[in-house]
Amino acid sequence: MTEMASAPENLHINVPEMLSRRRRLSDAFVTGLMWLVYTYLWAPLVSLVAWILGFEFAYDVMIRSGGIQGLKRVLVWYGIMLGCIIAVVTCWSLVNRMRFSGHERRKRAAIVDDQALAGAFGIEISGLHKLRKSRVARLSLDADGNIQHISPTGLSHRRVQSEASQPRKPIKIAG
Predict the structure, then answer these.
(1) Cβ–Cβ < 8 Å for 144, 121
(2) Per-10-residue mean pLDDT, the chain, length 175
(3) Tell me, what's the pLDDT at 173?
(4) Which residues contact 52 (CB under 8 A, 6 or more apart)?
(5) Which site in 55, 125, 149, 160 is 20 to 30 Å from 169, CA atoms measured?
C-alpha cells in the first residue's frame, strides 16, 4: 500500500466477524431500540393521517363492536396472528441458519497489484504513482477515453471547487 492509501483518515476497517458475540448482541439491541423510538415518534402523524382519511379505529372497536368484549376478541386475534408471523419468520431463519451457517458465501475482493492497476488504465507505474501522490490531477484523454497524460495541478481543494463552480464553455465531442 502507498502512504496515501494507508493514512489513518483513509482507513475504513469493517470486520464484523472479529466482534464478540456480546458486542454484536448489544449493537442489535440498541439498533432495535432506536427503531422502536423512531416508530413511536411517527405514531402521531400516522394517527392524524388516519383521522383525516376518516378512519376511527378506537370508536369502531369500543362502541360498534361491543365495547370491551369486542376489544378483547380483537386483541386475541391480533396475538394469534402475531404468533403465527413470529413462528414463520423464526422457522425461516432457522432453516437458513442450518443451510448457510459456517459457509462464508461472500468473497473478499482480489488484491490488485500496481502493475495490473496501471495496465487496466493503460498507464505506466510512474503515472500511477503521480495519481496517488497528487491530491488533484489533470488527465488528458484521447478520443476513446484512454489516459494520454497525467499532470498534478498543485491546486488546493478549495480552489478546485471554486473553479468547478464557475460556468464553462460547452465541450464539443467529436463523433
Answers:
(1) no
(2) 52 73 91 92 82 70 66 86 95 91 79 85 80 77 78 59 53 42
(3) 41
(4) none
(5) 149
Question: Would you give the DSSP letter of residue 10?
Answer: G
The DSSP 8-state label assigned to residue 135 in this structure reads S
Query: Position 135: which residue type?
Result: R
> The cell 449493537 sits on which residue?
27
Position 101 scores a pLDDT of 83
pTM of the model: 0.31
Q: Which residues pair with 65 in a beta bridge?
A: none
- Say what the pLDDT of residue 174 is: 45
Which residues are paired to 30 by β-bridges? none
Number of H helices, E strands in the chain: 6, 2
CA dist list (Å): 141 to 116, 121, 122, 123, 168: 20, 11, 11, 12, 18
What is d(CA 38, CA 127) in angstroms, rounded to the nearest whole number?
A: 50
What is the grid cell recorded at 96? 437458513
> Rg of the Cα trace of the chain?
30
Do residues 160 and 137 touch, judged by C-beta distance below 8 A?
no
